[in-house]
From TrEMBL:
The gene is CDC8. The lineage of its organism: Eukaryota, Fungi, Fungi incertae sedis, Zoopagomycota, Kickxellomycotina. GO terms for molecular function: ATP binding; dTMP kinase activity; nucleoside diphosphate kinase activity. PANTHER family: THYMIDYLATE KINASE. This is Thymidylate kinase. Residues 9-185 form the Thymidylate kinase-like domain. Belongs to the thymidylate kinase family.
Amino acid sequence: MARGLFILFEGCDRSGKTTQSTRLVEALNSQGIRAKLLKFPDRTTAIGKMIDGYLTQQNKLSDEAVHLLFSANRWEVMEQMRADLESGTTLIVDRYAFSGVAFSAAKKLDFKWCKAPDVGLLAPDRVFFMDIHPDDAAKREGYGDEIYEKREFQIEVRVKFFTMMDNSWSIVDANKDKDEIHRQIMALTSKAFAKHNEAESPIKKLWT
Ligand code: 2DT
């Protein structure tokens, strides 16, 4: 049986990642493709609850400590992710280690130090970068509720994302109409499946 694909959505806050990742899972399931949605941080676990307390400004943590918690929050589900992919389930993931590095490096933590705890995590097959200028994101509903939703900081985060891109990334203009974005993402996903079905590659690991 073919393994599932690991498709990742990354981007700044309020860029539509959650909307589009949810729509993609629904569309794949309706085509009979087994797909599951995952979101990081997963705020439901014990580690995730500490992260949530930090993001909603109920508890304070040092930049280094919260960075390591975000990474641990990925490692705690890595075996499950591997099992899902190997059993043929496609994973659609909303944020991952690239958010981890972009946000912490934007706080001026050392870039190499930021990458280190995530080395060896499963690597995505394709990354869709939902690109929106922070000024446009700020106009969207609910913006500013959490600790990182500040213009200058988001501009810095966006720059950090750009330094990590390679040819497995596609930049999606997140200012476009939602339905048009969904169609573009469906086309990119079909291409990824076609390539995968032609020559299945093993699951890679991050930054090794
Ligand atoms: P959501 O708004 O998507 O729930 O994200 N973040 C996320 C980090 O700083 N490091 C990480 O490793 C991850 C996955 C991005 C909540 C915020 O947490 C940030 C926004």
